[in-house]
Amino acid sequence: MVSLPAGIAAQAALTQQAIAMSVIKQNAEMVENLVAVLDQALNVPVSSTRGSNFSSSV
Hints:
Layout: H1 6-42
C-alpha cells in the first residue's frame, strides 16, 4: 500500500465529501419534485363527465 502525503489525502477526502453532499442534495431535490407531482395528482378536480361514456352492457 502506498502512503499519500497528508495534504493529498485530506484533499481527496474533501472531494469525496463534496461529491457525496452533491448526490444527497440532488436526491433531496428529486424527492421534492416527486412530492410536488404526487400532490398535484391528488388535487386534480373530478370531472363530471369522467366515465359517463362507459358502457357496462357488453
